[in-house]
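Technical annex B. To support the medicinal chemistry partners, we prepared a structural model of the target in complex with adenosine-5'-diphosphate, based solely on the information shown next.
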Amino acid sequence: VVQTKNERSKHVVHLSAECYPVAKVGGLGDVVGALPRYLQRAGFRVWVVMPWYNKPFVREHDFEVTYTGHFRQGSRQLEVQIHKERRNLLGFELYLIKIPGLIDRDEPYGYADESEQFMAFQHGFLHWITDAGIKPDVVHCHDHHTGLIPFLMYHSERFSALREVPTVGTVHNGQYQGWMEWNKAILLPPFDTWKWGLLDWDGVINPLGALIKCCTAYTTVSEGYLNELMIQANGLERLFEMERAKGVGIVNGIDPSVWDPEHDPMLEHRYGAGDVQYGKERNKVSLCERFGLDTAKPLLAYIGRFAGEKGADILPQIIENIMGGGDVGLNMMILGSGDTQMEEEITHLAEKYPEKVAVHIGYQEELSHRIYAAADFLIMPSRVEPCGLNQLYSMRYGTIPIVRATGGLKDTVLDMDEPQGYGILFPEASADDAVQAVYRALELYAQRRRMEQLREQLMALDFSWDKSAAKYIEIYQNIIA
Ligand code: ADP
């Protein structure tokens, strides 16, 4: 799918609230940090446009202001500045939108005026490219934070220059939709009132819904999730069903420049498929010594946000069921943060079983790499999992995934009892099912040869971006034509 030299490179603009390594909260950041580089390599001219954050990457790298303009949002006069990263360090062109007073903060999410913030980000983008006469071949919007863009491009007079430009919407997480009361409509530029229905869902403005209604094509981050959204989508099920014809499920890939145990600078001991047993052992010893765990026992890890969708609320019960009885010979390492009650319960259990359970509350990129490398098993009791990257990373590091059979987890993990299988699946997001699965893992651990063979098998699996990027390219080619 590489384009010929004399054809003008097609210009694709990705809009996202996160992009690793500039700012990452979860999988969205990983995807937008990697996919654009693969598209650029395939011959596209790719821009990533994201909000400006007060983050180390932004402070420490070289940016130039390439555009300044003004626009009105409701009663506020706003200034928009475009900061371009000068050297294309990430393998694509990176543009940050700064809007003093709204888009100039430390973190991507969690502010009371979030609706105004993301509205301003989207307006700022559209004012910039229309004023500067930029007309991309495709505008690609990620999640609800950028969900109003297709609507504004196609239905607001102010941005009519972009009316012919096709748009793609990608749903990384359908649980969050960016709901806004209708009184926020005064923040939008004028449009024909009969078009209100395109923004509305159940009496509020629903940016994710507007994205799905107005985009030319949409994608979800796995095929399983594409189908699940018609059954479970926080109120948008009927919409996903109606718009199904323009949806495609594309599973995320792994970026080997960040996730490769052979070259990972964050690891204490690097290893490849050839020395996976020894390599993992050494990483495990380092990690267990640091957290006061027995290095001789199998190590089960959890990494992720403490949220109901991740099933983090059943972790305490899982721990109690396993550790509370006798000694089953297992240690656990948990890295995560989120819901304060879950944080407290999990911390309490680590105090109750200090030699068996270790917890780090917080977000720590380096520690996450070290845990993927050190653990024997990684558990994901998710209720909802659009794609899930943790299981992909764990497999890349030779760690056996124990996952609830849902969404992207079901699409990427094949149970070890199946022919060619390599992981452990369990049916429900319940402590009972999860504990059963952990006991299967312990039986497996006792069979040393089988364990070794599975690790080698895992490390040889191909979850590269090349395959997935080709599917996005196919969509672009269809909608550009
Ligand atoms: P989601 O985006 O729903 O949180 P994903 O599985 O798609 O879930 O992506 C999670 C990403 O965030 C992975 O890269 C994972 O390693 C990382 N991550 C989650 N929590 C933490 C944490 N506390 N510290 C470091 N990395 C984390």
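Notes passed to the chemistry partners:
Residues 244 and 434 are 33 Å apart (CA to CA).
The two ends are 15 Å apart (CA to CA).
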